[in-house]
Write a structure and sequence with these properties.
Layout (H helix, E strand, L loop, with lengths): L7 H15 L24 H14 L1 H4 L7 H13 L7 H28 L3 H21 L6 H7 L4 H5 L3 H15 L30
């Protein structure tokens, strides 16, 4: 943001809003009375505009801010700052905001890329390693909780000792875990509706047929 000549007060306000949203903290307007490298000493004229922009963006959502959807109040605040500092027209929002939105989108893509690589791996081998580790952790937990299974299920599921099962392929362990879940999940009770219950008419079974009167 500094490379785009955004105002130091607005930069601090935006970063505070994004940080609070990312950490699931209360969204409150930050204290910006002491800002280093700020060309204006008196922030009172710009504070109301920044507060309005902050409140408007909070109402819209800071999540969509990271998708490049900025409230137009930011543009007003930025242009007001440019006027206070007597900056050239190339620093006004008409020029800088499109570049800023592009930088936001690039940063968001990088955040998601880093997040996905952390949880799923950057390539097939890393993904396989992560899924295998997760499956092994679940298998070990099921062996600790063998007492939760019935004796008949226990005899079927735990034929192999733990090291032997951990050495099996990933798909084998995933199928085994699904079988464990099905054994621990009670079947849903069967419910019959009135339209599903048929009356015992003569057409259903000979047992229900009545003898004809002579």
């Amino acid at each position: 943001m500094n490379s785009l000549n955004f105002s130091a007060p607005m930069t601090q306000v935006i970063l505070a809003g994004v940080e609070n949203w990312l950490h699931d903290l209360p969204i409150t307007f930050p204290n910006i009375t002491n800002i280093p490298n700020c060309p204006i000493s008196d922030l009172n004229p710009i504070l109301p505009i920044l507060q309005e922009a902050f409140a408007a963006q909070t109402f819209l959502g800071w999540d969509i801010f990271l998708s490049g959807q900025l409230h137009r109040s930011w543009f007003t605040a930025h242009d007001y700052y440019c006027n206070l500092c007597h900056l050239p027209s190339t620093n006004f929002s008409q020029v800088t905001v499109p570049c800023f939105i592009k930088q936001i989108l690039l940063a968001s893509l990088q955040i998601w890329k880093t997040r996905n690589e952390f949880y799923h791996g950057a390539n097939f081998d890393e993904n396989l390693e992560i899924r295998t580790h997760d499956a092994n952790t679940q298998v070990e937990a099921q062996y600790v909780a063998q007492h939760c299974f019935s004796n008949s299920d226990k005899d079927l599921l735990f034929l192999l000792n733990l090291p032997e099962l951990l050495a099996k392929p990933l798909q084998y362990k995933q199928n085994w875990l699904e079988l464990c879940d099905s054994c621990l999940t009670p079947p849903e009770p069967m419910t019959l509706h009135d339209e599903d219950i048929l009356p015992p008419t003569a057409s259903l079974h000979p047992y229900f047929q009545l003898p004809n009167n002579p």
